[in-house]
Amino acid sequence: MNERRSLLRNDGLQTFVCSIICIILGLIIGYLALLVINAEGAFEAIVNVIKNFFKYPSGDARMKYFGSTLAKTAPLIMCSLSILFAYKVGLFNIGAAGQYCLGVAAGLYCAIILGLPWYVCLIVGIVFGAVSGAICGILRSFCNVNVVISGIMLNWISLYATNLLLKPAMDPTGKDTFRLVRKAPEAILPTLGMDKLFSNNQYVTIAIPIAIIMAIIVWIVLDKTKFGYELKATGNNLNAAKYCGMKENRNIILTMVIAGGLAGMGGALYYLSDIVQWNVNSSSVPGMGFNGIAAAFLGGLNPIGCIFSSYFITHITVGGGNVDLSHYCAQIADFISAVIIYLCGFVLFFKLFINSRMDKAEEKKIEKRKALAAKENKEGGNE
Length: 383
Prior knowledge:
Blueprint: H1 2-8, H2 11-37, H3 42-51, H4 59-88, H5 96-113, H6 118-143, H7 147-166, H8 180-183, H9 194-197, H10 207-224, H11 226-236, H12 238-243, H13 248-271, H14 288-298, H15 303-319, H16 331-344, H17 347-382
Helix pairs in contact: 2-3, 2-16, 2-17, 3-15, 4-10, 4-13, 4-14, 4-15, 5-6, 5-7, 5-13, 5-14, 6-7, 6-13, 10-11, 10-15, 11-13, 14-15, 14-16, 15-16
């Protein structure tokens, strides 16, 4: 019985169970929405969303689109790591979307305008994201400005700064920037032969292993180093950390610098893979930074868990494009993906609910034991 109770208390198991609950609820709500709109094709539509690239009969086609899904997962992993890293230190980095934008701006500007190689473009993208994070950290440390407020404001500043910076890189035939393969092929991230594993999909670059390696590094830094312990101690209790001699202002700024750099790296990795181009007339902040919040919580605020949660969210989002638009409007795919992503944020809520129910059950058992013991003592005294 004790082994079963300890198993239920296991944080990893709880995260997994709660994540599955959120995913199932999201799919059920999405299916109900499809039923309301058009009951005839609802089941087929939700199955296509779940299948994603598995719907293709050819093995080569499945591998190719699997590679594209992985390529789109890499930036989401980086954004989820950015959210997670800041959250572990008691900060909510909602400015990850803006830091992601600046990573895109710096990477593409260095690539298309300056003609620099990919590794320089990537480093500059990281630096731009880190600088944006540093601004939030400095405002929090010295002006007591909440990072949520400064992050939201910087999201829009970063978006329009990106549009301005990339205006000279716009292809005159459209609203997007030039394709790197045409203007700056040396700035495209190398594939190191991985493209051949995915039916010669040129979008499968080193962005994927880099994102996984960064998740492992974040896990080591936070859980296995003195630096990570200090950061988490600062987040758990700022005054106690200060009393122990920890430099709380430095830790807050460093946290936001690292979080910003991770988000900026995500933007640079994605656009330097040449899988997509930036629309220089964009008026909305990219959803990648906000989806990183859902991925971080769905992964149980664990860097390794973020890898799998980011893949799942990308899988569902891409699969949403497989809905038959002759029966449903174009927005239904986004709606289904949004519902699932929204519910992903309730993983911690379900964990708290499970723990509270278990605590109450244990309290009742303890009270029963005490009452039974008191009754036995009373009966023994009477004898």
